[in-house]
Design goal:
Layout lengths: L9 H11 L13 E8 L21 E4 L15 E4 L25 H16 L4 E6 L23 H19 L3 E9 L10 H20 L6 E5 L9 H12 L4 E5 L15 H20 L8 E8 L2 E7 L6 E2 L19 E4 L8 E7 L2 E6 L8 E4 L21 E2 L20 E4 L2
Parallel strand pairs: 1-4, 1-5, 5-6, 6-7
Antiparallel strand pairs: 2-3, 8-9, 9-13, 10-15, 11-14, 12-13, 14-16
Helix pairs in contact: 2-6, 3-4, 4-5
Amino acid sequence: MNRYPPFVSLAIVSVTCLILAGNLSAGTADQWDWNGVIGTGQSLSVGQMGKPVISTNQPYNNLKLTTGNLELPIDPDDTNIALVPLVEPIGRYSTNYPSAWPQNIAGETPHTAMADEITALVRASSGHDYITAHSCVGENGQGMIYLKKGAPHVGVNGHAYEASMIETRAFARLARAAGKTYGVSAIIVTHGETDAGNQQYEEQLYKLWTDYNSDIPAITGQSRKIVMIVSQQNACADHSPSAQAQWKIGEDHPDWIVCSGPKYQYPYAGDSLHLIADGYRQLGEKYAQIYYDRVILGQDWQPLAPTGIEHSGLAITIHFHVPVAPLVWDTNFDSPHQSVDEWKNGKGFEVSTAAGTKVAIQSAAISGDAVILTCATDPGANARVGYAMVAEPKKLKSQHTGSLRWGLLRDSDPFVGAVTQLAQPNFCVAFDMTTP
């Protein structure tokens, strides 16, 4: 069922009634005139390879801060910090590598497209305005060690968390001066490549969420917890622990943390690591769709992801949470693993024995909410079943995505981004599981 304009569901009608009555909370305790969104991460969070920027006009009333020519340390009460319309670049361009806020931006980020999509969704369903106020504090190439609270200052790096507190204080001050209310609704995390081999990544990401939810309410006075939306990295390391953690953290902490899904379906730059400007805009629209469901509608959006696995002889059955049924195989992308004889029929799935020997997949078939893999030989107990976790050789990468790890499984979500006018079905997260 399509929950989004132009076909308005009963869920949106209900929210519309609340909006028109002056209540935008949709199941939340607070709602503000300006709704803060903090973006953190590494190069993809700051738009690396996303030039020239596209989103240079703000069609609504969404906001960002300008820091003028200020350099660290920066006082959030400095009058050189001012409100301006949210356009790209969201901040000051970096001039060196590495870089950090307030000169950390490389190109188009997801923020403006995210903000404009949120406003478009709310206006289409209610005619009411909705303003988000965005900060982008990521540090190109840096792991969680430099994003966390209390990060070491090494050269210019280690200021991301501090920068988010400075911008939150500045937004709060400027909101009071304008007679507006302000709080932080969401944190978007576009990260994980540097931490591709980090076995403690989920624990560290959860600690980041808890720290933000401790320190931001002390500034804004909000009682509502902040939703964290985490995008899965698909660029670095086979069987990456950070990619697995970015999916699993939403499974383990579903109330306030959610994985937005993979990024392999978006257009990449030639390095197969970063997106192009339009890819960042599509990612922003996906962030917005999830924000709309989780923050505004108060619904429990979850990505297309496995929920269980069964094994019987040659057959492996993987069950999925499907946001919008039915499951389908995407026909726009090249088939993955065409250079791996054992997996070329797997449509992105990968099967190996417990000892690590590749198992030939004869077919991959959708059956309701499940995919049935028929193997040439019995993979045995404790076999590894992966999806989009192993890279293609660069010369055989998908011409459509540019990612070296991808699959063809998606749902039938009819959501179309208001910014790009492109369809945004939900593609399956990359994952590793073990057969019983």
